[in-house]
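Retro notes (design track)

What went well: tokenization of the new backbones is finally stable.
What didn't: we kept losing track of which sequence belonged to which structure.
Fix going forward: every design gets posted as structure first, then sequence, in one message. First example under the new rule, 317 residues:
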């Protein structure tokens, strides 16, 4: 099955027939983004999923995102075109590891990135995404210790911005973003003087971006550490002719649509998330034809996780 106009028409017809809304993350293949009813970052999609009037949500993204939609709307049918679409970051901490960590800091507030399993969310006080992580941590009593997990680079970014000292950070990473390294960013920034930098906080190079600004290679106001949704807002507002983008390459599609006059270049054009790309045109078609794969979260786990996810969608709104 290839993406084509006929394919897109069939997808839309089947979705209507099922009473389903199609959500797609900014890292999805361009054809999947274009056929979706809503495209966005993890926070925006969680909010849309929570409020959707439809009884069925087809989540074109990775498993934890579909799981989050199910946690928020247990009565809805949530489908993902391929349930094997995992996330290396979500895999970097297990519920047992979190239990042990919490035992070391019994009074701490646990902040988990939305890129975690439902079980880990159930052991969490507040979830966050890259677009509201700073607001979430800033909302916590300054005297309480914070356990932040699982992404070390996002954690370091939040610590830098909030200036918080009493914050422990788990040493997890996303293999796609960690692979966008400082040397590459530095080389690209030097080869493209005048370009702005949009850097996702999960990137291994987020610190190098600030270093480049500190050393005067790139003016400070031209270095932006942003979630994927934040990048789109910044793209619409930028006066720059060229922007270097440090995140998963799927992002370029929405950026180019949002600001066609700007030249967006990937800092690392091999930074493609293999899990996001499991959602192929064929997989989406099969999903709508067969009603598979359905996402299940057992009720007790969903119940425990819901409060932390609800706090996430309320903060920074
Ligand atoms: P955001 O869309 O929230 O920026 O998240 C990026 C990501 O890596 C999701 O897997
Ligand atoms: Fe997970 Fe990284 Fe893929 Fe995002 S890009 S879904 S964090 S593996």
């Amino acid at each position: 099955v290839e993406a084509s106009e006929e394919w897109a028409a069939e997808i839309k017809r089947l979705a209507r027939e099922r009473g389903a809304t199609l959500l797609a993350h900014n890292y999805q293949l361009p054809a999947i983004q274009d056929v979706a009813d809503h495209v966005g970052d993890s926070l925006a999609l969680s909010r849309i999923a929570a409020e959707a009037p439809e009884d069925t949500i087809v989540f074109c993204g990775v498993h934890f995102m579909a799981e989050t939609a199910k946690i928020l709307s247990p009565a809805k049918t949530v489908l993902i075109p391929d349930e094997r679409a995992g996330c290396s970051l979500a895999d970097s901490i297990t519920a047992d590891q979190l239990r042990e960590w919490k035992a070391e800091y019994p009074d701490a507030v646990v902040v988990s990135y939305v890129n975690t399993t439902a079980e880990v969310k159930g052991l969490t006080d507040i979830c966050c995404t890259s677009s509201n992580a700073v607001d979430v941590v800033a909302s916590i009593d300054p005297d309480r210790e914070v356990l932040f997990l699982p992404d070390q680079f996002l954690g370091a970014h939040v610590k830098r911005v909030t200036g918080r000292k009493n914050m422990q950070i788990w040493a997890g990473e996303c293999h796609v973003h960690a692979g966008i390294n400082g040397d590459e960013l530095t080389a690209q920034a030097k080869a493209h003087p005048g370009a702005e930098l949009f850097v996702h906080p999960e990137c291994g190079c987020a610190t190098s971006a600030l270093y480049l600004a500190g050393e005067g290679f790139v003016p400070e106001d031209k270095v932006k550490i942003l979630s994927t949704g934040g990048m789109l807002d910044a793209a619409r507002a930028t006066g720059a002719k060229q922007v270097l983008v440090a995140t998963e390459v799927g992002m370029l599609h929405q950026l180019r649509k949002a600001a066609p006059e700007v030249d967006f270049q990937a800092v690392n054009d091999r930074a493609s998330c293999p899990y996001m790309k499991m959602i192929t045109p064929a997989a989406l078609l099969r999903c709508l034809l067969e009603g598979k794969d359905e996402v299940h979260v057992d009720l007790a786990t969903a119940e425990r996780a819901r409060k932390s996810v609800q706090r996430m969608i309320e903060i920074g709104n």
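Added context from the reviewer: The first helix runs from residue 5 to 18.
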